Amino acid sequence: MQASLSLSVSNPAAIPRSGHGFESSLPFPSKPVNLRFCGLRREALGFSSTSSSISAYRSNRNAARSKKVWASLGSDNGSSSSAPKSFDYDLIIIGAGVGGHGAALHAVEKGLKTAIVEGDVVGGTCVNRGCVPSKALLAVSGRMRELQNEHHLKALGLQVSAASYDRQGVADHANNLATKIRSNLTNSMKALGVDILTGFGTVLGPQKVKVGKDTVVTAKDIIIATGSVPFVPKGIEVDGKTVITSDHALKLESVPDWIAIVGSGYIGLEFSDVYTALGSEVTFVEALDQLMPGFDPEIGKLAQRVLINPRKIDYHTGVFATKITPAKDGKPVTIELIDAKTKEPKETLEVDAALIATGRAPFTNGLGLENINVATQRGFIPVDDRMRVIDSNGDRVPHLFCIGDANGKMMLAHAASAQGISVVEQLTGRDHVLNHLSIPAACFTHPEISMVGLTEPQAREKAELEGFEVAVAKTSFKANTKALAENEGEGLAKLIYRPDNGEILGVHIFGLHAADLIHEASNAIALGTRIQDLKLAVHAHPTLSEVLDELFKSAKVSF
Amino acid sequence: MAHLLQTSFLPSSQCLRPNPDRSSSSTSSPMVQISRRRSKTGGAVQAKIREIFMPALSSTMTEGKIVSWVKSEGEKLAKGESVVVVESDKADMDVETFYDGYLAAIMVEEGGVAAVGSAIALLAETEDEIEAARSKAAGSGSSAASSSPATASTSADPIPAEIAAPIAASAPIAAAPVAKLASAVHPASDGGKRVVASPYAKKLAKELKVELAAIAGSGPLGRIVAKDVETAAAAPVPVAAVTAAAPAPAAASNVELGTVVPFTTMQGAVSRNMLESLSVPTFRVGYTITTDALDALYKKIKSKGVTMTALLAKATALALAKHPVVNSSCRDGNSFTYNSSINIAVAVAIDGGLITPVLQDADKSDIYSLSRKWKELVDKARAKQLQPHEYNTGTFTLSNLGMFGVDRFDAILPPGTGAIMAVGASQPTAVGTKDGRIGIKNQMQVNVTADHRVIYGADLAAFLQTLSKIIEDPKDLTF
Questions:
Q1: Do B203 and A492 touch (CB under 8 A)?
Q2: CB 3.0-4.6 Å disulfide test: which of A397, B16, B106, B258 passes with A389?
Q3: How far apart are CA B449 and CA A155, in angstroms?
Q4: Three-state secondary structure call for residue A255
């Protein structure tokens, strides 16, 4: 959940969707390294025919390298006097989450001898405490919602009597899924020959990493991929029972009658979907003036009409929760609210539980960044557009990269992975700059929300600055045959584009399977495909993908 | 559109320009159709107040839902500005005004539905006319706001005050009688100053127009939960004497003879249940009960909203409390359960079938709340909104056909329960008394069908004797 959708506020210039603190809160279990993983994209590669050829290739290369390659490296590294003369590895990645995993698999594919350092469990936040278990809960909530919606079922001619659930069974499903994905992930790396070094990773100096207490390993290049931890604002006391973070919530140890969710971003929204489907009532506490601040305003408005208003949810906007006290001695959880602008006390809520989903902070403490003269910015490691770490003098630190949540460019699991792959491309001789505007994001509510590129206000601002015209096209799910067959006509797809050249600036979808539909748009942005070409592409009928087909066809490109 | 043209005013230079794209130039933007209200009375030219109509945004649209008002009452509008967002059968569209002026009165609130062509707001040309427009809206608005398509044409006529009156009068009903229910105060609510209510309770209260401050909460720590709001909303409505069966005689005449009609889902469910009942060995015991005292009691407390159904349910529940075996059920054929609560299911005929809303814990609730609950259940049953726990948790079933004059009948035991009681009409009967005289008493016959695997003849006999004592001396029913 967290990893799938998270955008940082730390570095607005680099972030396509500004202004929304991405919500989440996964308490970090006092372990050093953590990453997130949201897909097993490369896993299959490792087991197939390529694995043997890769390892054969690698061993050949390693043998050769010991004689001649190191010599040349010496001159490369002239800038750092303490640099070792020979290396244990070509690449060390600190953090075995989804970013590190993606980078490691790609590095092996490219023939690099690779090690990954993990101080906690493989898989990081995403697999263990994030998007993976949350998808299990959302799968349950989606079905519950359907079974409870008598009106909807009746329209389909179905009759179901009293749907109910077993809380422990639901919790086990989430836990089993996380365990399964974690072992898949570990096996995929082992099978490819990635060394998994267990222990807290610290950067000792250029090209040198300490693992655990006293193991020192050297590598030609180092990628920091330590991820992030949940941000719990001060004044909030988390007891893990009644005041919880998503870490606890994903274990689903209880389903409170009334839960306050602090933060109405992706994480808060997804949990509200889970909790209301399981019978809870929800109160949102949002510091900004409107709910779902990160979304395109139009999508946000529609989402609020579908995901908030008809459900057992109320909300307080424009307020900060300054103090949250867990329930004890028969007293409920109390939440003190102040006005976000005037700072005046507003109200005290009394609820059965509170879920803190107020954002994430990078996990970079104890990484030994002082050894290489790197100063973090609010915890984030500064990097350039090629993920190369910048030190406190503004110079590049050679052979050191940082990907994923730790650099704060775009706090999404798949963004971390993409950044890792981009770094490996550079290391193996192919310059590559990742286009963050082509990275999609999704929120797995029912129905789902997905987006790629700019929101309409961002696009208009950019257009103003750069002097081009912006146009918007929209299509409704109400006109899609497949959506109507599913009796799920609620939804909207929105295209923001340049009518002069057909460039896609942003696509936002709210509706059935929106998260799966967005990739046609994100791939088009990544590959630079223009609308006039997309108009000619064929979509199977009847499918939901025709929503995008119609969307592209309705765009008016003067070309 | 047709009925619009029959109204007393004509849409002047109306123009519909639906366009889903708010950003595009206004030349292709949707415009609200606005008509000038023609002055009907008096020779003087009246204030220029125009009505804003629900536009037809697509060829198939018959009604539209107001998603949101972009402008609020009193705001100045310029030609071409968005006023309202309307959801049609296809999409949401911003609708723009064709005239400058002031949005004087909103007649259909957000979330409301209005037929295409019906007035949804009034537009005043100058600020001075806002008041005049508002008073007009007050007359017609109340009916328009009910969002029935039929109001489209009526809103144009000057609406006499009395139409608005009943609506206005109904609003405070909720507050007044509810006040006396407010016995408990949330312990953490600053001595009652602050109302602690769950999100859904708040939503319901708004919908049902119930004052939260006047409700006692039954949730954790005295919190007001949805159930409390529903109870409060149902409370003040005088309960009509709804008895069990509410037939739909009109339907009978509409039946097309000679046709084969497949079962509805409800009929299918009934059919399955009836077949299942054949596997249970049942027997029947009848009893005649004198109801003079019960009738007298009913007459006395009828005005307080008490129904005969509730009285019978209550009496049955009290009798069951003394004979738990009659309230038991056998499901597997090897064991049986003494049910922990006494939930009286009462059979109700509804359009196209039969359903058994359940009065839960009927022995523990007082007769007034039981009556309210019953009313609420019947309404929900008619609206087909009963939740499963409201119709499938019965432990004992009542079926009453007395209102048709049926004097005795025989009921089939619903599977999963131990017994069902068929209640006939109470009618004046000549009876011989012990002293050898003949008198007239109101008597009704009841007939209990029970599962003989767990309930034996003596059990039923003893139960019926208790029941008849309770009914013949009904003081315990009102305690």
A1: no
A2: A397
A3: 37
A4: coil
Q: Which residues contact A337 (CB under 8 A, 6 or more apart)?
A: A285, A316, A319, A320, A321, A322, A345, A346, A347, A348, A349
What is the structure's pLDDT at A525? Answer: 96
> DSSP secondary-structure letter at B29?
-
Which among A152, A285, A476 is the top mutation candidate for probing chain B, defined by the most B β-carbons within 10 Å of its own β-carbon? A476
Q: Exposed e or buried b for every residue in B60-90, given b needs 16+ CB within 10 A?
A: ebebbbbbebbbebeeebeeebbbbbbbbbb
Contact present, A307 and A445 (Cβ < 8 Å): yes
Mean confidence (pLDDT) of chain B? 74
Beta-bridge partners for B114: B64
Residue A152 is assigned to a ligand binding site? no
**Chain A contact for B388 (CB, 8 A cutoff):** yes
Smallest CA–CA distance from A309 into chain B, residue: B203
Structure tokens at B221: 């720590």
How many of the other CB atoms lie within 10 Å of CB of A91? 28
φ, ψ at A549 (rounded to 5°): -55, -50
Please check the confidence at residue B143 and state whether its pLDDT lies above 50: no
Rounded to two decimals, the pTM is 0.60
Name beta bridge partners: A262. Answer: A285, A356
Q: Mutation test of the interface with chain A: which of B68, B69, B92, B204, choosing the one with the most A Cβ atoms within 10 A?
A: B92
Residue A314's DSSP bridge partners are A283
- Per-residue model confidence (pLDDT) at position A179: 94
Residue A70: burial class (beta carbons within 10 Å; 0-12, 13-18, 19+): middle
Answer yes or no: is A267 a known binding residue.
yes
Tokens of B387: 């939740």
Over the stretch A503-559, which tens digit does the pLDDT of each residue have?
A: 999 999 999 999 999 999 999 999 999 999 999 999 999 999 999 999 999 999 986
CA distance B226 to chain A (A): 10
Cβ within 8 Å, pair A478-B90: yes
Cβ of A456 under 8 Å from any chain B Cβ?
Answer: yes
Contact B97/B70 with Cβ under 8 angstroms?
no
Chain A residues touching B220 at Cβ < 8 A: 257, 332, 352
Phi-psi label, residue A321: left if phi above 0, alpha if psi -120 to 50, beta otherwise: beta
Nearest CB among A350, A472, A479 relative to B196 is that of A350
Please write the tens of the pLDDT for every residue from A211-236. 998 899 999 999 999 999 888 998 99
Q: Identify the helix (H) or strand (E) that includes residue A461.
A: helix A456-466
| ipTM of this predicted structure | 0.72
Strand, coil or helix: A77: coil
Residue in B67, B199, B226 closest to A314 by CB: B199
The shortest CB-CB distance from B21 to any of A302, A472, A479 is to: A472
Beta bridge partners of B430: B440
B3 is catalytic: no
Chain A positions touching B24 (Cβ under 8 A) are 471-472
Q: Which residue of A has its CA nearest to B25?
A: A471
Quote the crossing angle between the two packed helices B129-144 and B161-173, to the nearest 10°: 70
